[in-house]
Every structure is written in structure tokens, then in C-alpha cells.
Amino acid sequence: MTATSLAPRVQGTVRIVGAGLLGASIGHALSARGIDVALDDTSPSQLRLAIDYGAGRRAADDDAPSLVVVAVPPDVTADVIQRELERHPQAVVTDVASVKLEPLRTLRERGVDLTHYIGSHPLAGRERGGAISARADIFVGRPWVVCRDEETPSADLALVEGLALDLGATPIEMTPEDHDRGVALVSHVPQLVASLLAGRFVDAPDGSLRLAGQGVRDTTRIAASAPELWVQILGANAAPVVDVLDLIAADLTAVADALREPDAPGARRAVADTIRRGNDGVERLPGKHGQNRRFEQVVVMVDDTPGQLGRLFGELGDLDVNVEDLRLEHSPGAQFGLAEISVVPSAVRRAIDGLESRGWKIASTTND
């Protein structure tokens, strides 16, 4: 029995303020579980679009929600939280903003009663925003930070954590300070680094860009994010972001100095240590199911014709090889792609031998 086959933990009406990507995605997921979702948004067109796509119904004045989810831009998050707490004093109010400390400070300075407020943040999203990009499954398997304090009623905490569990996410309790430092490192600074690198492409020769492979696409994927939203996020979490940027700036300066005189004593070691430290950092990132487990890759050439990926997956299943992860790379100007299949080390030889015997061409493996 899966988690989503159980009865929903959240009961009654859930009011969602903000029908963009996160708000509408929450609405889709809850509606699919039979929960009454009432949507509200200052943008009439955004609200209609979310309703048309099935994320919920239009909120009514006489709604009595058990839970209010605030999913609005960071610069108005505190205002909307305050309004919802005052309008629905019997409800638990949470928000899904990517910065937790700044709105909390603002609300405390205003003297707002925060007994029934719990800040939270699902570590999920897409490069494109809006109701049209919303999906019910974007939270599945993702961390959902819940920021409680000593005054938080246990029933309120259970409701917010129940929301995360109903959506397939994994609740993680953190303080607002720890959360903001964490997202600065793993979300906010990576956005800036990706944008800075992709910005170098603007004036690059076309010939250089034709050399781009999957590595640079992976590195710059999030550079397609909306500038308007990120100006607000980075401004609200400026201090932790600057702390990380200063460290990276020092690292870049050290590598640049080494490469200015690559034959100088210690220069090559400085470069090697930089790459090796990156290796060590990657090893610390949780893998599938949150495990620090590494997989090996088998790269298979796949014809760019309908049904080929399905056939590849089917034959891997016949070989009793589980696909732990998948990455696709298309070769410019060629009628084939490269499917990088991640498998457990013990399955590598079985996958290679079995696929080659079935006519597949193996481009490379981790150990090549």
C-alpha cells in the first residue's frame, strides 16, 4: 500500500492564497485526493487558469478552512500571512516561501499573534512558473522544511506535516535560521552561479556554443528562472547568500592565480585540490531515496525514433536491471541520442552484456 492510497491526513477545506506554480501544484495534489481546495489570487487571469486546469475552486467569503497555505511572492508573504491569520483565526496558516526568517521577523515586529502560524518550504519547483506549469507530482520525494517553535501546538504541527506527507514529500524540522543558511548554499547561490555562467554565452561566438554538451546544459539549466522572483528571494536572504558568495569568490581567485602561472610551484596542486574537493562535496549529496549511495553509468546510443526509450527500459527490465536514474543527451545534427543509465555497480556487466546481445550500442561506462 502506497502513502497516497491512505486516507488524507488533511481534512476539511484547504485555502490556498496564490495560484502560481507552487500554489496550483498543491491544489492539484490535494484535489486529486478528494480534498476541498479553495483558491484565491490577486490576478483574476491566474486564478481562472488554475481553476480551469483543476487545481481547485474559487474561494468563497463563507469558507471556513482548516488550513491556509500562503503561496505568494516573498515581498508580500508577511502581509498575506497576517491577513489570513486575522481573517481565519481558527485555521492553521503556513506559507511556502523560500525564505523563512525575514517574514517571521516582520510579523514579530508587528506584534502579530503567531500561535497558529507555521512557516514551511517545499524544496520543489520548476524553471517555469505560473498555474500553467503546475503539476501534482512535483513534491513527491522532495524535502519539505517545517519551522516550528516551542509555542507551536502539536495539532497544528501535525496538520502541516500531514500536508507534506499527503503530497508525497518528506517533512524536515529546521529553525528559520538553519533553513535560510541551507537554501543559500544549495539553492540560492547555485541559481546565481548558473546565471553568471549562462550570461557568458550571450556574447560568445556561435561556433563555441555548438560545442556545448550535456554537462554545460546541466550546469546552467536553472538559469532560465524568472528574474523578478529571484530578485525578491535573494534580497530577502541576502546575508547568508553573501557569506557563501564571498567564500566562492575567494576560491575562484585562488584558482585563477594558480592558472595565471600553471608551472609555478604548487599551482597544479591548487587546481587538483579544487577538483578533488568538488569530488568530496558531490559524494556528500544524498542520492536516491536520500541515501549517500553512488551508482555507475552505462551510456547507450538510442535512435531518435518513437518507442526506442520504451524498448530500452523494457529490455533492461527483462535483464533484471533497475534504472536508478536517467539522463538524456541529444547529439546536434545526429539522428540519435545518448541515454545515460544509472545502475548499481553489481548490475553494470549484466546490463552491458545483455544490451549488446540485443543489438544496442554501448557508448561508454563509468569505468571507461
TrEMBL record:
Record keywords: Amino-acid biosynthesis, Aromatic amino acid biosynthesis, NAD, Oxidoreductase, Tyrosine biosynthesis
Source domain of life: Bacteria
MF-aspect GO terms: NAD+ binding; prephenate dehydrogenase (NAD+) activity; prephenate dehydrogenase (NADP+) activity
Broad EC category: oxidoreductase
A Pfam family of this chain: PDH_C
PROSITE patterns to which the protein is assigned, alphabetical: ACT, PDH_ADH
Single biological process term from Gene Ontology: tyrosine biosynthetic process
InterPro entries: 6-PGluconate_DH-like_C_sf, ACT-like_dom_sf, ACT_dom, NAD(P)-bd_dom_sf, PDH_C, PDH_N, Preph/Arog_dehydrog, Prephen_DH
EC annotation from Swiss-Prot or TrEMBL: 1.3.1.12
Pathway this chain belongs to: Amino-acid biosynthesis; L-tyrosine biosynthesis; (4-hydroxyphenyl)pyruvate from prephenate (NAD(+) route): step 1/1
Residue ranges annotated for the Prephenate/arogenate dehydrogenase domain, each copy included: 12-289
Catalysed conversion reaction: prephenate + NAD(+) = 3-(4-hydroxyphenyl)pyruvate + CO2 + NADH
Domain ACT: 297-368
Family that this chain belongs to: Belongs to the prephenate/arogenate dehydrogenase family.
The protein's name: Prephenate dehydrogenase
